[in-house]
Design brief:
four-stranded antiparallel sheet, mainly beta, Immunoglobulin-like, six-stranded antiparallel sheet, about 15% helix, 14 strands
Length: about 170
Amino acid sequence: MKKHLWVLLVMFPVFFFASCDLSGESNYSPNIIFLRPVANNQDTLQIDFIKGEGPVMDTIQVGDTVMFYIRLIAYSNRLTAFSLKHLPAEASTLLLPPVSKMDSLFNSQSDYDKGDFYMDPLYSILDMSFRYVALTPSLDAKLDFMVVSDANFEGGQGSNTTQIRLKTPIKP
């Protein structure tokens, strides 16, 4: 009995330390979260997940301005890039925060007009707001979000990129 107990006492620490990542690194796929309900003036717009289509926002009308508040999260990693595209381009436009504010967060490689935001790997969490203005009717209007972190997955067990395509139907 003592021999079995001795083997267990020796083997437990071996298995415990062999299973831990002692390098101090943890990798998680980044995430995009809508912080507040999407708002159109005083109205709250719902975002529903529709099978086969993904997330779809309530229908808006031409001339509506929708305020988005999003949070980019890299967890224990650091954010390196963010992309925000609106398609088709003629259906809508984006109103971003002042350039001076964005310049304090994003580096010189960023191209705000194209929706490409690059940052030095300093932040694990970043909150951002922008306005989405409906210009012409389109049932195919959408917003594409992508966030990239410095996570390094070996063996294909995760991704350092997360993408969300939000359909934003616009009626006349």
